[in-house]
Amino acid sequence: MRNDNNNPLTRYFGALDGLRGLAAIGVALFHWLLSFQGYLAVDFFLVLSGFILAHRYLYAGERPSGRAFVLARLARLYPMHFYGLVTYTLVYFLLVKDIPRYPDGTLFTLLQQLTLTHNVGLNIHGQTWNAPGWSISVEFWLNLAFFCYIGRRTSSLHLLLMSVAGLVVIANLTGHLDTTYQNYFQVLNSGLLRGWAAFVLGILAYRAYRVLSGVRIAAWLLMVAQLVSLGLVLFLLFGRQGTLRILDLFAPFVFAALVLLFAFESSLLARLLAKLKWLGTISYSVYLNHLIILMLVDTGLGSLGYSHWTLTPVYLIALIAYSAATYRFIERPAQRLIQKTARTWLRPRPVAT
After folding, report:
1. Are 249 and 177 in contact (CB under 8 A)?
2. Is the pLDDT reported for residue 327 higher than 60?
3. How far apart are CA 118 and CA 114, in angstroms?
4. Cα–Cα distance, 351 to 343 (Å, whole number)
5. CB 280, CB 16: distance < 8 Å
6. Is 210 in a helix, a strand, or coil?
């Protein structure tokens, strides 16, 4: 069967949105249960980010100006980041009767949160404030590096070697991918290195998608490959412990294959995942809200003596409902406001004669 994608530049990837939503739930469950390697979902997000940004900015017509690109990324990332920071602080104060305090400085770390510099190597003692937001800092600065450094003519071999080199450094100095704020050689932030290694593999996955999008692919063969890639993901998440954490280093490659395979939606499995695109739509809110809901559920119901496993349905229902509300009333309106303001600001002014 020929892939039904006739115009890859205008594609909307519904199955990938479904996977994005499941990954956000995976991170939320990881922090709630702490019983599997759910931190790897962040590497999936970064691979997917590389894929989507390559789709939108490398091969989708005219390249935007630097200012337009930065404003577009801020419109996407900043509103929920800021809202998550504010609500985390309020909930923390409500529960602890004090503001969060950190060894690297309360005001210093707050200013970093406000400027998206909270995971670039300045905090040597740990994550701060709404901790899952560390990857938002990484995402923003990697996006800028992508815009400034990577073009259509950038060698795919060059991108692959950068990814492999970064993962080799992490393998030697940490031994797994559960690293964020730590600095290597006192100057190289491990979260940025981890993020870049995954991000560029996403770009490579998109280039492979462009090459294969016109190839005749049997639906059954595609689904078998998708099932194999999902099996490898499940193994990486649930099937290993202890010294086998070194297998983390293969996760970005598995995720790149997963994204590539599910970009083709001619299989039944991909079409089923596309039904979950609503979860992908609110996934950014889910990601930045889950620590707040976790604290509230844990504090409000934990005293009743129920285990986290027992309270999991309550936690997930509250998280999804709250995130759907913040997406509708916070995330999207703020994005539209920034985009409208940006269009006005970027509009060419008439030249006086």
Report:
1. yes
2. yes
3. 8
4. 18
5. yes
6. helix
Nearest to 120 by CA among 111, 213, 36: 111
Q: Give the predicted TM-score (pTM) of the model.
A: 0.90
> Is residue 225 predicted with pLDDT exceeding 50?
yes
The tokens for 207 are: 């280039």
More confident of the two residues 115 and 66: 115
283 pLDDT band, cuts 50/70/90, is very high
Distance CA 130, CA 86 (A): 9
Instruction: Tell me the β-bridge partners of 188.
Output: 184
- Residue 160 pLDDT more than 90? yes
The token duo for 50 is 């590389």
Residue type, 267: S
DSSP state letter for 58: I
What percentage of the chain reaches a pLDDT higher than 70?
A: 93
Using an 8 Å Cβ cutoff, are 188 and 197 in contact?
no
Residue of 71, 251, 255 lying closest to 170 (CA atoms): 251
Q: Which two tokens stand for residue 302?
A: 């934990």
Contact present, 114 and 134 (Cβ < 8 Å): no
Determine which helix (DSSP H) or strand (DSSP E) holds 184, and give its type and residue range: strand 183-184
